Amino acid sequence: MTQVPQSVAAPAPAASYPSQDPGALRFDDPRLAFAAHSNLQILRSLAVFSACSIKPLVKNADSLLAFAKRVLGASLVNGIVRRTFFKHFCAGAGVHV
């Protein structure tokens, strides 16, 4: 039987490596992982991801947004989108070089 040299052997699973960064985010403890976020931020994220999982909503998003803007007004709809989807997925509104 041929032995595999130690330098070629598969590395240990990532979970067994201690993090070199003491501030690294760890997902094995949800309280630590989400401690920096308020309940409102977590609920917003849940709502955004739940909405994104509804295929007809995603497929017809452009038409639904246009309809909502006609009925509710562009300012209200843009404000809602900015404070939910945009805030969740985007880092900012301007281009910073």
Structure description:
The model has no long low-confidence stretch (mean pLDDT 80). The chain has a domain at 27-89. Helix content is 53%, strand content 0%. With 97 residues, the chain is an all-alpha fold. The protein is built from five helices and no strands.
Number of strands: 0
Mean pLDDT: 80
Cα distance spanning the termini: 58 Å
Order of helices and strands: HHHHH
The helix/strand class is mainly alpha
How large is the radius of gyration?
A: 22 Å
Sheet-strand content, in percent, reads under 5%
Stretches where pLDDT falls below 50 for ≥5 residues? none
Main β-sheet description: none
Global shape:
elongated
Number of alpha- plus pi-helical segments: 5
Proportion in helices: 40-55%
